[in-house]
């Protein structure tokens, strides 16, 4: 068993937030305070956003969880010992399983967990709990593009090229990705490119674009089909590339040909001239266009729809038709959101996957992983429910009666939040492992205080598939344990062999490498030693006699399907799951802002973030506000068929007249997810956060 490395006076690690994983150097300690500086890491090259600079605030949060809590007979959470807390959890899990069977216990993970935690969580669920009921919050933010990428290319890695390649781009189309706010250091790589931004809002990113296409919410796929239509009619397809490297363009074109530009304008609101200019810019057909490459990059705005997989596929079709993916002079990529959104979906915390990014229904994959785990393949459960389906089933007949949550805050981040909160409240046992008392932790029967980024070792995989070392600067507070230690301790209490659940990160990683060997995301050639010498390693990186250099660029010679060719998808626009009506006449779309991250559990504890964005707001066009009787800076109620939230009005003349925007980082009555729609993409299970039909009403000041 490995030892934890000694703590260092100065530590090179990475920001705890988004998938860019900017390089940082930490100095100081808990007593004098932790200072952060950016390093010259390839993705951030000496820059950080506000969230990165202020991340140490969360280490010193006044309400940091430092002792286990158990809910007593009086209904209050009270401090207790680790033994009492873990015994309570183990006894509760045993009781539920005895009464209702193993699938009555569920696990909910997170896209911010390290690779080691994601791996051990999946193993713990499937062996120690013998449950199929495990999924994670990454289902909410990447699963549609991941599925579309797997189907198109045979392999999903957010960006199949390093972000540095974008520096030579001539044109970049950003669809549903506001990187100027969500990943600001990434903008430096796009300084020389002409940007086309597809977004219903004039975001900070759209403000820097040469061309902003502003479609009505939920019509992105109609726009993608229309752009392909123009490329076909204007003779801009890369016929040689299509012939050599793809299959299935006929079906994609058949669908696109019914989306002529005027029809697309009538549905999306994007003028024909702007559609045409976008295609010509991407194809390099503009007068004076240089020979730099073109890229199509998608984000949550494309994915979080009831047909998000098809919408992502529509943009992939466009990129393939123009000959971009794997060409070495352009490409397609998906901008993963959460810190370990990429690694988090590769190591087995998804309902349908085993480590190595393997399908849980593939007999060969089951045999391999079972062999590494030392159990017969038939002992591994099958696929479980996707994240929202799992939350929706909690406490129901046949649904889970007990839930363990690691690294997630679904009471704020899940759609139709009031329903999810009722489901959480109906459980026999809710256990939350976290480092701050999130809104979900406050509902728990047992709260387990765990380490955070600057107190722990591990690895994460950023949006480029680059595997990174997280390194500890300082020890955690005295009674705080690592998530790995918690899983180990719980497994032992449930009668599992202690050596089956490595509590030391390097040991967990070495086991993960073996489990991933031969899989789609093969980490077997990556080690802590190689990473600690400064090697930059992108998966796949198989074990080899001569150390494999990793794969920064995928698909240059062939795609990952057995015949080496990419696949077009035959997709059709059907509109959003919920459309506007006289009762709910406006589209509401939700998203992130510069100051906050995800459910806000961390950044709402940061002074600068609170100063910049202290309360929920709704962005509204002044004419729309006037029609609803709203005043700038006044309070408004935003109501859908699911419920209402309260927000401060911000007038913005760049908003569409039919659309309002609400950030989703705030709790309580300010939760955007009180109005969001729980419709799921039928193939990826991703919720349709981006389109809800709402109405606005003015509220008096409290
Ligand atoms: Fe952290 Fe992302 Fe900001 Fe970089 S861009 S500092 S990784 S939040």
Description:
It is a single chain. The chain has three domains: 69-140 and 340-503, 3-Layer(aba) Sandwich (Rossmann fold); 143-335, Dimethylsulfoxide Reductase, domain 2 (3-Layer(aba) Sandwich), CATH 3.40.228.10; 586-699, Barwin-like endoglucanases (Beta Barrel). It contains 23 helices and 28 strands. The structure holds iron/sulfur cluster.
Set out the fold topology.
Elements: E1 10-14, E2 23-29, E3 33-38, H1 50-54, H2 56-59, E4 69-71, E5 77-79, H3 82-100, E6 105-109, H4 115-128, E7 134-136, H5 143-153, E8 169-175, H6 179-182, E9 194-198, E10 211-213, H7 220-233, H8 239-245, E11 246-247, H9 249-256, H10 261-268, H11 272-283, E12 293-298, H12 300-303, H13 308-321, E13 330-334, H14 341-344, E14 353-354, E15 358-359, H15 363-373, H16 387-393, E16 402-406, H17 410-413, H18 417-425, E17 429-434, E18 446-449, E19 458-461, E20 466-470, H19 483-493, H20 505-516, H21 528-532, E21 537-538, E22 566-567, E23 586-591, H22 607-612, E24 617-620, H23 622-627, E25 635-639, E26 644-651, E27 659-663, E28 692-699
Parallel strand pairs: 6-7, 6-16, 8-9, 8-12, 9-10, 11-22, 12-13, 16-17, 17-18, 23-27, 24-26
Antiparallel strand pairs: 1-2, 2-3, 4-5, 4-18, 14-15, 19-20, 20-21, 23-28, 25-26, 25-28
Helix pairs in contact: 3-19, 4-19, 4-20, 5-13, 7-10, 7-11, 7-13, 15-20
Bound molecules: iron/sulfur cluster (SF4).
Residues 15, 17-18, 20-22, 44, 48-49, 51-52, 183-185 line the site of iron/sulfur cluster.
Domain 4Fe-4S Mo/W bis-MGD-type: 8-63
Pfam families: Molybdop_Fe4S4, Molybdopterin, Molydop_binding
Keywords: 4Fe-4S, Iron, Iron-sulfur, Metal-binding
């Amino acid at each position: 068993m490995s030892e934890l490395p000694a703590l260092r006076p100065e530590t090179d690690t990475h920001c705890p937030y988004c998938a860019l994983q900017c390089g940082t150097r930490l100095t100081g300690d808990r007593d004098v305070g932790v200072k952060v500086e950016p390093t010259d890491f390839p993705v951030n090259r000496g820059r950080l956003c506000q969230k990165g600079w202020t991340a140490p605030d969360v280490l010193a949060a006044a309400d940091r969880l430092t002792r286990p809590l158990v809910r007593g007979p009086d209904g209050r959470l009270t401090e207790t010992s680790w033994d009492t807390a873990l015994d309570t959890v183990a006894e509760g899990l045993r009781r539920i399983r005895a009464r209702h069977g193993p699938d009555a216990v569920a696990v909910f993970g997170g896209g911010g967990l390290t690779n080691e935690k994601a791996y051990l969580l999946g193993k713990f669920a499937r062996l120690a709990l013998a449950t199929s009921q495990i999924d994670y919050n990454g289902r909410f933010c990447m699963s549609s593009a991941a599925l579309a990428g797997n189907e198109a290319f045979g392999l999903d890695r957010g960006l199949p090229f390093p972000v540095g390649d974008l520096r030579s781009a001539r044109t970049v189309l950003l669809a549903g990705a506001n990187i100027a706010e969500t990943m600001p250091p990434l903008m430096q790589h796009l300084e020389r490119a002409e940007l086309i931004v597809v977004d219903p809002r004039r975001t900070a990113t759209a403000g820097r674009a040469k061309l902003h296409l502003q479609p009505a919410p939920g019509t992105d796929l109609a726009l993608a089909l229309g752009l392909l239509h123009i490329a076909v009619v204007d003779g801009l397809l890369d016929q040689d590339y299509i012939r050599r490297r793809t299959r299935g363009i006929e079906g994609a074109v058949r669908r696109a040909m019914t989306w002529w530009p005027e029809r697309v304008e009538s549905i999306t609101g994007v003028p024909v001239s702007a559609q045409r200019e976008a295609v010509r810019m991407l194809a390099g057909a503009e007068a004076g266009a240089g020979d730099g490459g073109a890229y199509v990059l998608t984000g949550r705005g494309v994915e979080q729809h009831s047909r998000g997989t098809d919408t992502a596929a529509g943009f992939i079709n466009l990129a393939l038709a123009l000959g971009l993916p794997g060409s070495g002079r352009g490409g397609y990529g998906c901008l993963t959101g959460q810190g370990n959104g990429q690694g988090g979906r590769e190591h087995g915390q998804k309902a349908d996957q085993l480590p190595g990014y393997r399908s849980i229904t593939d007999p060969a994959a089951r045999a391999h992983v079972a062999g590494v785990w030392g159990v017969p393949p038939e002992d591994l459960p099958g696929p479980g429910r996707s994240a929202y389906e799992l939350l929706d089933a909690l406490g129901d007949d046949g649904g889970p009666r007990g839930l363990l949550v690691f690294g997630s805050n679904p009471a704020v981040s899940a759609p139709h939040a009031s329903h999810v909160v009722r489901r959480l409240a109906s459980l026999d046992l809710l256990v939350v492992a976290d480092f701050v008392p999130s809104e979900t932790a406050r509902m728990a029967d047992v709260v387990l205080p765990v380490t955070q980024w600057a107190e722990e070792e591990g690895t994460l995989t950023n949006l480029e598939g680059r595997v990174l070392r997280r390194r500890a600067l300082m020890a955690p507070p005295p009674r705080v344990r690592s998530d790995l230690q918690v899983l180990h301790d719980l497994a032992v209490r449930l009668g599992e062999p202690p050596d089956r659940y490595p509590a030391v990160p390097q040991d967990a990683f070495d086991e993960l490498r073996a489990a991933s060997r031969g899989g789609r995301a093969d980490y077997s050639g990556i080690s802590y030693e190689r990473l600690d010498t400064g090697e930059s390693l992108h998966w796949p990186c198989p074990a080899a006699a001569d150390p494999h250099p990793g794969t920064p660029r995928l698909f240059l010679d062939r795609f990952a399907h057995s015949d080496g060719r990419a696949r077009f998808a035959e997709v059709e626009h059907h509109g959003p799951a919920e459309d506007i009506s006289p009762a709910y006449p406006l589209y509401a779309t939700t998203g992130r802002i510069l100051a906050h991250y995800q459910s806000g559990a961390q950044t709402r504890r940061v002074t600068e973030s609170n100063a910049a964005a202290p309360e929920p707001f709704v962005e509204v066009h002044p004419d729309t506000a006037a029609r609803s009787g709203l005043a700038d800076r006044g309070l408004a109620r935003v109501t859908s068929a699911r419920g209402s939230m309260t927000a401060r009005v911000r007038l913005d003349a760049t908003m569409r007249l039919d659309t309002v925007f609400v950030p989703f980082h705030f709790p309580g009555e300010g939760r955007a997810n009180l109005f969001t729609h729980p419709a799921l993409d039928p193939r990826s299970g991703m919720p349709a956060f981006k389109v809800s039909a709402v109405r606005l009403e003015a509220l008096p000041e409290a």
